[in-house]
């Protein structure tokens, strides 16, 4: 069940969705239940992770290179919980991402490769009500990804080397979903997929293993989203800001 206050593309119209996130686990905290619903409906979902998450974790005995490798493994395991197998990596340093022309080009490249109907990304706006989604890497990736959607990926004269050297034709993304921002205009009921979201986050053991009541924490966030969406008590929802980019 989906509660919405705007026109959103029907999932039946979609063939592919690209998820662009800053770190391993970002998609699972923000949208794992929603992604599971997409793959259940036969939509191909591709992940693009901008960093390896090498600055994460709590174990001083693990080198940063080892942490990066571990987090790639954890993201692969988490993705399987929600039906995703195609994960691509840019390998930028965790904690030092900036919305550069180079990052815009790299994301536009993957958009032209995948040719998605919808792109999910972090919000480029700071959320003052909940500061954690507003990590500077998240905001930088959201800004670069939104610019890659419009105008870069659809403009054949933007980054002309993508066409001239790589044969990547321009592509127009029809819709963007922003996660973790200060406003939401679309809610997805994930109550029936909550366990899969929990399992996906538990796969990120280096980041969530210390959380004594991960399901309880998630239920608090998701229940608040469901209430904002006007869903019945006991339901759980993920929140997004949907933007028409057709």
TrEMBL record:
GO terms for molecular function: hydrolase activity, acting on carbon-nitrogen (but not peptide) bonds, in linear amides. It holds the Pfam family PIG-L. The keyword Cell membrane does not apply. Keywords: Zinc. One of its GO terms (biological process) is glycoside metabolic process. The keyword Iron does not apply. InterPro entries: GlcNAc_PI_deacetylase-related (IPR003737), LmbE-like_dom_sf (IPR024078). This is LmbE family N-acetylglucosaminyl deacetylase. It comes from Actinomadura hallensis.
């Amino acid at each position: 069940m989906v509660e919405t206050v705007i026109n959103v593309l029907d999932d039946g119209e979609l063939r592919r969705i690209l998820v662009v996130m800053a770190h391993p686990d970002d998609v699972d905290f923000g949208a794992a239940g929603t992604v599971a619903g997409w793959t259940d409906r036969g939509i191909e979902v591709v992940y693009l992770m901008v960093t390896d998450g090498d600055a994460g974790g709590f174990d001083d005995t693990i080198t940063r290179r080892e942490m990066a490798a571990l987090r790639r493994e954890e993201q692969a395991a988490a993705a399987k919980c929600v039906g995703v197998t195609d994960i691509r990596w840019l390998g930028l340093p965790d904690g030092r991402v900036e919305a550069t022309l180079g990052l815009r080009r790299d994301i536009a490249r993957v958009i032209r490769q995948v040719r998605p109907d919808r792109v999910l990304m972090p919000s480029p706006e700071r959320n003052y009500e909940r500061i954690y989604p507003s990590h500077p890497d998240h905001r930088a990736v959201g800004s670069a990804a939104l610019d890659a959607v419009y105008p870069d990926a659809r403009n054949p004269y933007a980054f002309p080397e993508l066409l001239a050297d790589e044969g990547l034709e321009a592509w127009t993304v029809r819709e963007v979903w922003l996660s973790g921002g200060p406003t939401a205009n679309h809610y997805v009921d994930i109550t029936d997929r909550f366990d899969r979201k929990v399992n996906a986050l538990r796969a990120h053991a280096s980041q969530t293993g210390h959380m004594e009541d991960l399901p309880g924490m998630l239920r608090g966030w998701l229940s608040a989203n469901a209430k904002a969406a006007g869903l019945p008590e006991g339901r759980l929802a993920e929140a997004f800001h949907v933007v028409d980019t057709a």
